[in-house]
Predict the structure of CsbD family protein.
Amino acid sequence: MDKNRVEGAVDQAKGSIKEAIGKVTGSEELQAEGLADKAAGKAKSTVGQAKDAVRDAVKK
């Protein structure tokens, strides 16, 4: 598993937590940070998946 996939999953989790805390506290800024973290995490995961796919294709 590519490290980008792991980092992406961590970023998505952090983003979900920030977003939830932002909703509870009424902080739109924290909600926005959470959404941005989740988007960045998803992008990292996608890059990691692509790297894994290329690596697997080369091995075959």
About this structure: The mean pLDDT is 94. The first helix runs from residue 3 to 25. Residues 8 and 37 are 9 Å apart (CA to CA). Helices lie at 3-25, 28-59.
